[in-house]
Write a sequence for this structure.
């Protein structure tokens, strides 16, 4: 009987040129690494966010995981749209569990809004996953994630976070603040800064991410 592979749920957000779908993110990662993002014993899943009106685009449709009132860490979260997608992604996780993968052998994470979505998904709904990764991501100052963690008393998934210091869309300071607050609420965190990196994926961070994935999901 074939061995069931562990799962790595890789979420993405549209950017100016790429990452507008699960396949787009996969292609972008391949271009950055000059190879596919593969593991012998881990299945990498690239879901695509459904199209929806997106307020920062003046209501234009885009493949985004949830809506934002503005791209800022100092405004309310659009919880209605976040919660809808948490349920959609929960269904995806449940499907992997039914296929034989244990929850503690599943990682969730993503780039930009995908990383934010992953933090909501794991820390509010699935605190028994193996870990969370967030690249160029942040949580709002009054995030529901923080509120949920204030009520948690169990062991929390570790967070692996990367952020470019030159990011002008999602400020490096927003990522640092997110990491600091999560750490104060009991999350074990690893935060890596990348000098000169904008709102983009870099080869160095993806290589660090691959190493971290192997520590969380050893063969």
């Amino acid at each position: 009987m074939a061995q069931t592979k562990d799962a790595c749920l890789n979420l993405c957000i549209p950017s100016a040129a790429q990452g507008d779908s699960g396949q787009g993110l996969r292609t972008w990662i391949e271009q950055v690494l000059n190879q596919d993002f593969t593991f012998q014993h881990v299945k990498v899943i690239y879901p695509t966010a459904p199209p929806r009106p997106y307020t920062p685009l003046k209501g234009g449709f885009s493949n985004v995981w949830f809506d934002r009132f503005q791209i800022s860490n100092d405004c309310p979260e659009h919880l209605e749209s976040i919660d809808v997608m948490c349920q959609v992604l929960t269904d995806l996780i449940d499907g992997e569990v039914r296929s034989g993968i244990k929850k503690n052998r599943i990682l969730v994470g993503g780039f930009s809004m995908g990383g934010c979505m992953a933090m909501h998904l794991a820390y509010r709904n699935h605190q028994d996953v193996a870990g969370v990764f967030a690249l160029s991501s942040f949580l709002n100052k009054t995030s529901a994630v923080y509120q949920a963690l204030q009520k948690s008393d169990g062991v929390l998934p570790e967070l692996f976070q990367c952020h470019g210091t030159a990011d002008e869309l999602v400020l490096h300071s927003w990522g640092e603040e997110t990491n600091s607050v999560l750490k104060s609420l009991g999350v074990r965190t690893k935060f890596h800064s990348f000098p000169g990196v904008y709102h983009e994926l870099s080869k160095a961070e993806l290589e660090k991410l691959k190493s971290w994935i192997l520590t969380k999901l050893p063969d």
